[in-house]
Specification:
The chain is an alpha/beta fold and about 500 residues long. It contains ten helices and 19 strands.
C-alpha cells in the first residue's frame, strides 16, 4: 500500500510539472495577475479550534500525535473551547456549594489546558470556557451527568434562564476560571483559597459559545448582552488587561439581529469593551448527496456564507469599527453527525473537498479584512461530528483538511498584500499575494473533482506545493514548474511561489 501511495504521489508531481498532460481535455484556463495593483493588505491569521475530547486524554495512543499536529501548525490565536457534551472534562464546579462545602475540581480541565498551552507555546491564545454549570439554570429537575468523563452527554446543557437574575453567579464562576489559569488560584464562594500555580497569558477570553443555539440555552441578543457585560465586568477585576470576544454565534446567516443589537454601544454598560466578535460556519450537504454532487453544494454554501460575512462586516463597521472579527469555527460536516456510525462511509474525496472549501473561503475572508480564521476542528470521532475532524481519530495523524490548513499557515500571514487576480473559469479560484517578505505567491483552488489546467504568465520557474485527491492525507507534493501552465488534479489546493 505504501509503495502504491508513493507511486500515486509521484504521478501527481509528474502531472503538475508536465503541461502536455491534461486528463480533462480542452484548453487551459487562462489567468493573469496585476502585481502592481494591491487590493488589500491582509490582517488574516490562520488558526485552529481545539475542543477537549477523549482522544486528547493523556495515556491514549492518539494523545501525542494530536498535540504534535497542533504544535507543528504554529498558529497564532488557537482557540481552546471546552464544549458541554463532556461535563466532567469541561465544568469545574459540577455541584453547587452546600452545607459549608464547595465542589471545585480542575483535574481533567487542567490536563487538557496544560497540554494545549505546551503545544501552543510562544503564540497568543484564546480561551472559551463557555459551558455554564447546569445547576446555575432554572430546570424542572437537577440535570444529571455521566460518571464516565468519556461518555457524551448531549442533554447536559439545559435551561434558558439563569437562577440568579443579577448574573453575578455566572460572572463569578467565569472570573474564578480566569483566576485559576492566570492568577495562580482564586477564593471560592466560602472565601477559601484554591491554588493552581498557573500564570498563563491569555490574549482573549471569549464569553460563552453558541448561546444562540437550541442546544446551548437559546439566548436572545438582549439576554446574551446582559450576561456578556456581567462576565466582562467581573473578569476585568481579576485580570485587568484581558481582552474579550463576544457572540460566538452558531448561525450568523440566520441571526443578523444579534449583530445589530450586540454591536450597538448603547446596549452595553458604560466602559464594557468588545475587542472582537466571533461566529461559526460549517458547510453540510444533504444526506442523499453523492460525492459528485457535494462539490457543487459545498461551494455554493460557502458563497452564501461569504455574502453574509459582507453584510455582517457592514454592520460592524457602522456600529463598532474598531473591533476585530474572528471566524473561530470554519469547517464542513456530513449529515447524521451524532450517529455512532455513519449512514454512509465518508468518501476519501470528502476530506479534500472540505480542504478546498476552506482555502477558497480563507482567501475571500482575507480580502474582506477578517482578522482570524480558525479551522474546526482539531479532532473529532464517530459519535462526535467526526466529519469535522482535521486529524484521523484512530491514529491522530493529519488528513487532507489539516494539510491544507498548514499549507496556508506556512505561506500566508498578516502583512501580505493581496493583488488583483483574474481567472476566466468559475471552476477554479485564484488569488495572488505578495508576502511580507516580498515573495510572489498564487493560491489556486480547483473546485471540481476533475483535472483542470490553468495558465498564468510567470508560473514557469516557480515551485508548486499541492494537496489534492492524489496526495490525500500525505504531505503536499512539491514540484518545479517548467512552463506557465499547471494541471490541477481534482479538488487541488496549490500554492505556487514564483521565481524571484
Amino acid at each position: 500500500m505504501r509503495k502504491l501511495k508513493a507511486l500515486l504521489i509521484c504521478l501527481a508531481s509528474c502531472l503538475v510539472s508536465s503541461p502536455s498532460v491534461l486528463l480533462s481535455g480542452g484548453s487551459p484556463v487562462k489567468g493573469e495577475v496585476n502585481w502592481d495593483r494591491v487590493i488589500r493588505v491582509s490582517k488574516t491569521s490562520v488558526s485552529i479550534q481545539d475542543c477537549p475530547e477523549p482522544p486528547l486524554r493523556r495515556g491514549r495512543p492518539t494523545h501525542d500525535p494530536i498535540y504534535k499536529a497542533l504544535r507543528d501548525l504554529h498558529a497564532d490565536y488557537p482557540r481552546l473551547q471546552p464544549w458541554f457534551p463532556y461535563p466532567k472534562m469541561v465544568v469545574a464546579e459540577l455541584k453547587p456549594p452546600e452545607n459549608g462545602k464547595t465542589y471545585w475540581d480542575f483535574a481533567l480541565m487542567d490536563e487538557f489546558t496544560e497540554d494545549f498551552m505546551q503545544a501552543t507555546a510562544g503564540h497568543p491564545v484564546v480561551f472559551d470556557f463557555g459551558t455554564i454549570p447546569a445547576w446555575m439554570f432554572k430546570t424542572p429537575a437537577p440535570v444529571p451527568y455521566p460518571d464516565d468523563p468519556d461518555e457524551i452527554a448531549w442533554k447536559y446543557s439545559q435551561g434558558t434562564e439563569l437562577r440568579d437574575p443579577t448574573f453575578r453567579e455566572v460572572a463569578d464562576y467565569q472570573a474564578r476560571l480566569v483566576g485559576w489559569y492566570t492568577q495562580g488560584g482564586f477564593n471560592d464562594e466560602l472565601g477559601k483559597w484554591h491554588a493552581s500555580g498557573h500564570h498563563y497569558k491569555i490574549a482573549y477570553w471569549e464569553v460563552l459559545n453558541e448561546s444562540d443555539g437550541s442546544d446551548q440555552h437559546s439566548m436572545t441578543p438582549e439576554y446574551y448582552t446582559r450576561i456578556y457585560d456581567a462576565i466582562v465586568e467581573r473578569v476585568r477585576q481579576v485580570s485587568p488587561h484581558m481582552k474579550f470576544i463576544g457572540l460566538a454565534l452558531s448561525d450568523p446567516v440566520g441571526g443578523p439581529q444579534y449583530f445589530q443589537y450586540f454591536l450597538d454601544p448603547k446596549h452595553h454598560q458604560p466602559g464594557i469593551p468588545i475587542d472582537m466578535i466571533s461566529y461559526h460556519f460549517y458547510t453540510m450537504p444533504d444526506a442523499d448527496e453523492t460525492p459528485e454532487t457535494m462539490q457543487y453544494t459545498i461551494f455554493d454554501q460557502a458563497d452564501k456564507f461569504l455574502t453574509a460575512v459582507r453584510y455582517i462586516e457592514t454592520i460592524r463597521k457602522r456600529l463598532s469599527a474598531g473591533m476585530g472579527s474572528y471566524i473561530d469555527e470554519l469547517g464542513s460536516f456530513l449529515p447524521d453527525p451524532e450517529a455512532p456510525q455513519f449512514a454512509h462511509p465518508i468518501p476519501d474525496s470528502y476530506w479534500n473537498l472540505a480542504g478546498a472549501m476552506w482555502a477558497y473561503t480563507f482567501a475571500h475572508l482575507a480580502a474582506m479584512g477578517i482578522d482570524i480564521v480558525g479551522g474546526a476542528e482539531l479532532i473529532d470521532y464517530p459519535g462526535q461530528f467526526a466529519s469535522t475532524s482535521l486529524l484521523n481519530w484512530d491514529t491522530g495523524q493529519p488528513n487532507a483538511r489539516y494539510r491544507v490548513l498548514k499549507l496556508l499557515r506556512d505561506n500566508f500571514s498578516p502583512g501580505d498584500k493581496l493583488v488583483e487576480t483574474h481567472l476566466e473559469s468559475p471552476y477554479v479560484f485564484a488569488q495572488a499575494f505578495i508576502t511580507a517578505q516580498g515573495e510572489r505567491k498564487i493560491l489556486l483552488v480547483n473546485k471540481r473533482e476533475r483535472q483542470i489546467e490553468v495558465s498564468i504568465p510567470g508560473l514557469a520557474g516557480g515551485t508548486a506545493e499541492v494537496v489534492d485527491v492524489i496526495t490525500g492525507s500525505s504531505p503536499p507534493a512539491t514540484t518545479s514548474l517548467t512552463a506557465d501552465d499547471i494541471p490541477l488534479n481534482g479538488l487541488a489546493v496549490a500554492i505556487v511561489t514564483l521565481k524571484k
